[in-house]
Every structure is written in C-alpha cells, then in structure tokens.
Task: inverse folding
C-alpha cells in the first residue's frame, strides 16, 4: 500500500505514457465508447420519460359513467353511491352545459360548428377518478348499478403506453448488456495491446521483484480514464439532447408530462459516469488477466 | 545466501543446461562464474533469479526455495537482488535517473529518500552529470553503468551481473569490474559471470566457478589464478 501511495505520481505518468504510445487507437476507443454510451443514454432517457408518462396517466386515470334519464336528486344519490366503491378517488357530476363548454374548449376556433345544433347534443355524466390497479373491480360494481347505462374508459390507451414503456425498459436492459460487453471487449483489447507494446518493460519490472498489482495499476488507470472520457462525451451529448427535447416538447406538446429536467439531467450524468467507471475497471481487469506470470 | 544442491536443469527441448550442480555462496563473497558461451553460466544465474526452476534438486536463495509453486516468495527474493543483465534491460524513453529509481519504487521507499539514493548511485558510477539523459542516448559503457546504478541503489543483499564486460573494450571492462567490486561488503555477495577470464586472472580473494557443458568446478583464489596463467 505504501509503495502505491509513494508512487502515485509515477502511476499517473505511466498512464499518460501508455495512452500516448497508441494515441490514435486510444482516441478511436474513446469515440467508440462515447457513441455506445450515448446510445445507452438515449434508451434510458426514453424509458424514464415513458415511465413518467405512465405514472402521470395512472394518477390521472378517470372513467366516465353515463346514466339514463334520471332526476337531479337521483343524480346526486348516484354520485354518493359511486363514491363508496373501493378504488374510487373522487366523483364529480358534469351536467350537459359543462360537457358542451368542455367540447368548445377542445375545439377552440372550430367550436362554431356546435352552433349548427339546435339543442345541446351533449349528455350529462359522472367523472370518476380511480386507482388504475382496481379498475376491473370498479367497472364490475358500476355494471351492477341500474342507473348506469354505459361506462367509457381509456384502458386501451393506458395499456399501449405501458406496453411501450415495458418495451423500452427491455430495450434498455439489452442495451446495457450490449454496451457492457462491447466496452469491455474494446477496452480489454486496448489494454492487451498496451501490455504487448510494453512487454519488455513489464518483464524487467517482474525481474526486479515487482508485484502484479504494481505493474497492472497504470493499465487499470488507463482503462478507467479512457472510458471516463467516453462517458463524459456521452454525458455532454445526452445533456444537449435532453435540453433540445424539452425545448421542443414545451413548444409543440405542452401537456406532455415530462420528468423535471434538472432531475433527469442529474440522473443521466450520474448513471453514465458510474457505468463508464465500472466498465473501465472491469475491462481493464479483463485485459490485465492476459499478463502471464514469470 | 545461495544454496544449490544436486541441481539439474533441462530445457523443454531436451538441452541439459546444468548437471548435478552443488554450490554454496555466502554473504560477503565475490564469485566469478566463467565458461565459454553456452556452457551454462547464464542458466545458473537464471536459476538464482527464479527465471528458471530446477528440473531436479533444490535451489535456495536468501532463505527461499526457488520452485514453481513459490512465485510470491520469489518476488520477495527478487526485491533483495540487484541484477545487472547482459542486455541491461533498462526502460527506454526514460532518463537514467528514472531507471535507477524504478528498482526502488517497488520497495516502497519514500520519494525523497529514493531520489537521494538514485542520485548517489549515479554519482558513484560516474554518471551524475548525465542523470537526466534518456538511456537510449547513452553510450554502451554508460548504459552499463546505469544498469549497475539501478542494481546497487536498492541496497541489495545479492548483486548478480551477467556478462557485464561483454562488448566493452579492455579499459572499460576493467573499470566496470572494479566498480562492481566496490559494492562488496560483509552483508552483500556479488556473483559475476564472464567469459573474459583474462580480466580476472589477477584476482585474489574471490571464488571462481568454471562451468563447462553443464558441469561446474569450484576453485578459490590462487588455484584459479595458476590454472589460467599457464
């Protein structure tokens, strides 16, 4: 341990020398690693946004219950009855006028088309906010109520989003494995090449009684430094991409429930940096395992 | 310090490098190993360095057995040896000073002390003024001196020099042998291989080991002198 501390300057110098010895190859490995980590970052960012979308939609999940011709008093009774169903968060009565107002808001400039109707074509309904996990039970209970004629839910939409997110997650895991293996192969190859180029020096160190850890440490530092550089380039690219994405979404799809930008940026920076450090360490160890004893 | 008991060394291709060799070298001893090229001198040094393992018999260096399953202990032994290799094995691209320090780095010596020792060793071999020169820019004789400085700076218990006079003219060869002898003390043994017997036949107070076709003959001081003076 002492010899490691006393020789830290030497190890850093050696690391620099190993990198310079094969500068062009090392630059290409950094670029390759950066591209791979960038792709991983894109997939993880996509998964994050998809997850957030599903959570937000789940929290906002609501179904609409349409009823037959009933009196105002019966409507209020129905609201109270529905409110008691397990999994129902809140119930609100939307009368015919509010239903029409909402449609006018949605249609905006095109709302004048509604003036073609002599009478209000919209029906009153009850808006039910629910716990999405209990949607089946709630629908069953609603079906047993004779006042309810039919229920409109957006389960298909939610299911599609969940499926897309699951797909993204799976893609993310596959990408992680692929990135891991590729980076380890690239890096261990670079380290092996470095060892081969320095085989005379390594042999001399061995004959002077140097332990393997002493010989190998600069190579581990080299591996970590190369992937870290790749990780930094990938992180900067991802940060630029996320910023661009948020600005585009803010302008075109303002209702898109994106995770807070700073939170996503921090998460991605930490994740890509940690992955690059870990891969650098593991890749170097693999490369070092090729040093033969004696 | 070095015990070689009934040792034979046969290389994988069947070459018998050493045959039933027995040898005992004590601290404070100066030993010359002579013999023509291919006689087995370097093989004997390789055994002592743990670069080869005996096919038969036992080699013990500084209390540790040189055998295949003792790699950790062999590393420890090597830390206490100051080797001067035939082909120097200096690290190119580094200065003489850095090369001398590398031998001490693995011993965990404090940087300040390490620099001081490296400087002293280079001064002693007469290369203090060239300590910042890259080793590839030095002459053959100067490179040899850097290799000696690296070997002695770490204060080894055993200095092993393989053909240190090879490729040197007479005056330089005599100087190098003289220089190596200055590092002999009661705690340090020096083993030198050479085929240049004319350089050492004036030598007294040394042990001479003649290697011939894998067999060794040990003689001390004047006996050797007489044999080679004839």
Result:
């Amino acid at each position: 341990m002492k010899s490691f501390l006393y020789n830290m300057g030497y190890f850093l110098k050696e690391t620099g020398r190993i990198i310079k010895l094969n500068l062009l190859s090392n630059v290409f490995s950094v670029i390759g690693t950066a591209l791979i980590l960038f792709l991983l970052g894109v997939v993880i960012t996509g998964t994050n946004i998809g997850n957030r979308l599903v959570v937000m939609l789940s929290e906002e999940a609501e179904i609409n219950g349409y009823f037959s011709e009933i009196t105002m008093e019966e409507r209020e009774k129905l609201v109270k009855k529905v409110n008691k169903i397990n999994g129902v968060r809140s119930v609100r009565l939307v009368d015919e006028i509010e239903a029409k107002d909402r449609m006018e808001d949605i249609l905006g400039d095109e709302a004048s088309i509604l003036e073609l109707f002599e009478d209000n074509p919209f029906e009153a309904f009850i808006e039910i906010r629910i716990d999405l996990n209990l949607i089946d039970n709630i629908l069953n209970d609603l079906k047993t109520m004779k006042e309810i004629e039919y229920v409109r839910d957006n389960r298909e939409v939610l299911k599609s989003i969940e499926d897309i997110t699951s797909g993204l997650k799976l893609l993310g895991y596959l990408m992680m494995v692929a990135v891991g293996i590729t980076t380890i192969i690239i890096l261990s190859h670079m380290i092996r090449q470095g060892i081969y180029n320095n085989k005379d020096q390594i042999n001399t160190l061995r004959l002077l009684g140097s332990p393997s850890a002493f010989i190998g440490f600069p190579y581990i530092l080299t591996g970590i430094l190369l992937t870290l550089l790749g990780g930094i380039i990938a992180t900067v690219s991802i940060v630029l991409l996320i910023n661009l994405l948020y600005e585009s979404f803010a302008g075109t799809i303002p209702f898109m429930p994106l995770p807070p930008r700073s939170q996503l940026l921090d998460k991605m920076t930490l994740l890509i940096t940690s992955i690059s450090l870990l891969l650098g360490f593991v890749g170097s160890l693999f490369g070092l395992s090729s040093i033969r004893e004696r | 310090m070095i015990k070689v008991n009934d040792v034979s060394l046969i290389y994988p291709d069947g070459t018998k490098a050493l045959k039933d060799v027995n040898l005992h070298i004590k601290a404070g001893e100066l030993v010359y190993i002579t013999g023509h090229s291919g006689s087995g001198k370097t093989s004997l040094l390789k055994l002592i360095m743990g670069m080869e393992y005996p096919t038969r018999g036992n080699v013990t260096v500084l209390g540790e057995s040189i055998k295949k399953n003792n790699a950790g202990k062999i590393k420890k032994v090597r830390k206490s040896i100051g080797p001067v290799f035939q082909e120097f094995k200096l690290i190119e691209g580094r200065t003489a000073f850095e090369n001398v320090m590398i031998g001490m780095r693995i011993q965990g010596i404090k940087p300040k002390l390490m620099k001081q020792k490296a400087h002293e060793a280079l001064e002693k071999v007469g290369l203090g003024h060239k300590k910042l020169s890259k080793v590839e820019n030095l002459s053959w004789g100067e490179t040899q001196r850097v290799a000696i400085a690296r070997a002695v700076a770490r204060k080894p218990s055993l200095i092993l020099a393989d053909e240190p006079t090879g490729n040197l003219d007479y005056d330089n060869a005599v100087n190098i042998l003289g220089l190596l002898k200055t590092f002999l003390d009661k705690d340090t043994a020096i083993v030198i291989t050479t085929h240049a017997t004319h350089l050492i036949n004036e030598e007294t107070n040394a042990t001479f080991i003649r290697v011939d076709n894998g067999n060794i003959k040990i003689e001390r001081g004047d006996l050797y002198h007489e044999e080679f003076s004839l």
User: Anything to note?
Assistant: The helical segments of chain B are 41-49, 71-79, 96-105, 111-124, 140-153, 170-181, 221-229.
